Amino acid sequence: MKMIRDLFIKLIKEKAALMLFLSLTITFALLTSCQQSASSEDFYNKGVYYGERGEFDLAIQNYDKAIEIDPNYVDAYINRGNAYGAKGDFEYALADLNKAVELSPTDVYVYYNRALTYQYMGDYEQALADYSKAIELDPTADRPVLNRALLFQELGQIDDTIADFEKFLEVSSDEEVKRLVQQELDKLK
User: Fold this and answer.
1) Counting beta carbons within 10 angstroms of the beta carbon of residue 17, is it exposed (0 to 12), middle (13 to 18) or buried (19 or more)?
2) Phi-psi sector, 104: left (phi>0), alpha (psi -120 to 50), beta
3) CA distances from 144 to 129, 133, 134 (A)
4) Rounded Cα distance, 119 and 46, in Å
5) How far apart are CA 189 and CA 186, in angstroms?
6) Can you tell me the distance from the alpha carbon of 108 to that of 116, in angstroms, rounded to the nearest whole number?
7) DSSP the chain
8) Cα angle 64-69-72, degrees, rounded to a multiple of 5
9) Could you state, in chain order, the average pLDDT of each consecutive group of 10 residues for the chain (189 residues)?
């Protein structure tokens, strides 16, 4: 009887060891396949997640991975550029935004984001050029119009400010911002 019991215990232990081995093997395979199948979009979305929380280094790391998988991922370049800009690393920001312009020369928001970067850097001439290009590509894009108006105002170019504020009122659907712009426009006239 003892021999049967010992054999039974040995079989149970071997079966448990085999089950553990199989379980670990399957877990490892699943983890490996998940890591290998992570798409550029997965990393991009993680970058967005971290960027929205102000964790720009983690955002940049994830955008790096997205771009490594898909070197033509325009939105990853834009957002990585914006993350660099938020950190004050404008040289890197411009490099990414220039790459995004190269990859997507008709994308309004590539020019808009690059204009914002130039504006933060104090390069108002380049900022105005990019806002104007964005507006040329899509005259109904309200953010480039508004930001160009505000930059004109900052530069003391009141006639241009008024023209862009009026254009913004025509193209925007954001009633709250339109109300504020109208108040500012009333002060200028």
Assistant:
1) exposed
2) beta
3) 11, 9, 6
4) 28
5) 5
6) 13
7) -HHHHHHHHHHHHHHHHHHHHHHHHHHHHHHHHHHHH--HHHHHHHHHHHHHTT-HHHHHHHHHHHHHH-TT-HHHHHHHHHHHHHHT-HHHHHHHHHHHHHH-TT-HHHHHHHHHHHHHHT-HHHHHHHHHHHHHH-TT-HHHHHHHHHHHHHTT-HHHHHHHHHHHHHH---HHHHHHHHHHHHHH-
8) 85
9) 48 47 43 61 97 97 98 97 97 98 97 97 97 98 97 97 97 96 94
pTM listed for this prediction:
0.78
